[in-house]
């Protein structure tokens, strides 16, 4: 069983990003703040509401928790990449195709009642999943989100890249984001607009924003 169950946070200390653990001399941390049209669209879609329940799969980042709570919403955080590594390991993706392990992983991480959330900050976690695990995770996200809710995800836009920077996302403002990158994570499969539309076929709509960092910011409406 995984050690970290989901918790609802109204302000807690930041947790370290699991990251890629290799020789620190080979890794250089970079920090960049920039405008995010995807983030701006996410908050635009929920403006005027209060007391919403949001799910953040990037873990308990203090700035993100405080920003959401200051808007009058509730936030539940889950360190999805960390628990992904704990459940399946980092050396191979073969275990991500095991139906039993997939069921255990989703039960441990997304065991919420139907229609629990009004929005989900996916960040970039879905791009590190095998097709089987990704499909099961997206189906679960569809179940636990309410009608007309929104999700924000990030996907690498370069189909030829085999790995992507291990990134931590921090909300600086409703339309600005801080990306802290250190090390690399292996990409499991390439994503383009067409296959992302297939991934989220059960959802109402998918909208794309391409950034300078070869990141595709995606807004998914339930």
CATH class label: Alpha Beta
Distance between the termini: 30 Å
Integer average pLDDT: 88
CATH architectural arrangement: 3-Layer(aba) Sandwich
CATH fold label: Rossmann fold
- Order of strands, widest sheet: 1-4-3-5-6-10-9
CATH-wise, what's the superfamily? Vaccinia Virus protein VP39
Give the gist of this structure.
By secondary structure, this protein is an alpha/beta fold.
Keywords for this structure?
222 residues, alpha/beta, Rossmann fold, 7-stranded mixed β-sheet, 3-stranded antiparallel β-sheet, 6 helices
Describe this structure in words.
- The radius of gyration is 16 Å and the shape is globular.
- It has a seven-stranded mixed sheet, with helices on both faces. Strands 2-8-7 form a three-stranded antiparallel sheet, with helices on both faces.
- The protein has a single domain (37-162, 189-221), classed as Vaccinia Virus protein VP39 (Rossmann fold, 3-Layer(aba) Sandwich), CATH 3.40.50.
- The relative contact order is 0.20.
- The two termini are 30 Å apart.
- A hairpin with a 4-residue loop joins strand 9 (205-210) and strand 10.
- The model is unreliable at 1-22 (pLDDT under 50).
- The protein has six helices and ten strands.
- With 222 residues, it is of the alpha/beta class.
- 27% of the residues lie in helices and 32% in strands.
């Amino acid at each position: 069983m995984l050690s970290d169950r989901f918790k609802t946070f109204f302000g807690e200390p930041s947790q370290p990003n699991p990251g890629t653990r290799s020789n620190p001399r080979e890794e250089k941390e970079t920090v960049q703040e920039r405008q995010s049209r995807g983030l701006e669209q996410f908050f635009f879609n929920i403006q005027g509401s209060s007391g919403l329940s949001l799910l953040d799969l990037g873990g308990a980042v203090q700035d993100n928790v405080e920003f959401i709570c200051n808007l009058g919403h509730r936030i539940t955080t889950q360190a999805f990449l960390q628990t992904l590594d704990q459940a399946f390991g980092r050396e191979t993706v073969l275990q991500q195709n095991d139906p039993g392990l997939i069921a255990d992983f989703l039960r441990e991480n997304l065991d919420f009642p139907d229609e629990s959330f009004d929005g989900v900050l996916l960040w970039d976690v879905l791009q590190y999943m095998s097709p089987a695990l990704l499909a099961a995770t997206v189906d679960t996200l569809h179940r636990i989100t309410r009608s007309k809710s929104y999700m924000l995800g990030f996907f690498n836009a370069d189909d030829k890249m085999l790995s992507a920077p291990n990134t931590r996302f921090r909300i600086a403002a409703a339309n600005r984001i801080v990306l802290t990158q250190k090390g690399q994570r292996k990409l499991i499969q390439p994503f383009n607009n067409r296959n992302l539309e297939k991934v989220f076929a059960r959802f109402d709509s998918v909208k794309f924003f391409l950034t300078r960092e070869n990141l595709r910011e995606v807004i998914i409406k339930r």
